[in-house]
Design brief:
2 copies of one chain form a homodimer.
Chain A (H helix, E strand, L loop, with lengths): L12 H6 L2 E3 L7 E4 L4 E11 L5 E7 L9 E6 L3 E4 L4 E4 L3 H5 L4 E2 L8 H11 L6
Parallel strand pairs in A: 2-7
Antiparallel strand pairs in A: 2-3, 3-4, 4-5, 5-8, 6-7
Chain lengths: ~130, ~130
């Protein structure tokens, strides 16, 4: 659950004092790196829980990396870690995991409800969190 | 603090089971209502903590309501409550409070850092939370 984020170091005191903010209007295009610091792709959007205001999934796009055009990969928020040094997010997942991950086509955006969320959670739930 | 949201009813079990999500690409234009259910304006953007993924401020615009053109009003997230019935957010603040609130002009967007956040928090901190 994304909610668990709130008790770990990533969101501790330091974060509150130094963390910067990003506008929902400027999310798109934020760089995404692998754990080897190599650029993997970018953020297409954040999926925000309307009630809690917590980003639950980051939708990633990998510009041609996997030979794929406009497919979007929703990844649970707790698999992303913001790196001020990189000015972007690090996704600490094996490429093979991402390659086989749930995705959708630009023209076929899913209804992003709990059922779809669970499908994503189930897939990534088997891999260790960053 | 927006973090406090996580222990109240608004984000309890019910939310997790029924809460839907909104894409950062579709945030703009979401309706904002007063406590009297009258439409006040709309969301211009969410300001998201890059590290925690928590929306800390919703930037509101009031289309001409106060006779003002393109001014943006950042409001702490905990003053907004999502209403599925309205399909939008309810801001339980007196209009006089909003009229005198910190704002910025479209052409003069501030550096949205901790200092600016504190300015907003200080203003709204004196008014009770929804």
């Amino acid at each position: 659950m994304a909610y668990d984020n709130y008790s770990n170091d990533q969101n501790g005191l330091e974060t509150r004092e130094t963390g910067d903010m990003i506008s929902s209007r400027k999310v798109e295009g934020t760089a995404v790196y692998g754990s080897d610091s190599e650029k993997l792709g970018s953020i297409e959007s954040f999926m925000v829980n309307k009630l809690s205001g917590q980003v639950e999934y980051a939708v990633l796009q990998f510009g041609g990396l996997f030979g794929i055009g406009s497919e979007y990969y929703p990844v649970p928020w707790n698999h992303l870690r913001y790196s001020p040094e990189h000015g972007g997010y690090i996704v600490n997942l094996d490429r093979k995991v991402l390659e086989a991950a749930p995705r959708y086509d630009e023209a076929d955006e899913p209804q992003f409800d709990r059922t779809y969320g669970r499908e994503i959670d189930d897939y990534y739930g088997t891999y260790p969190t960053v």
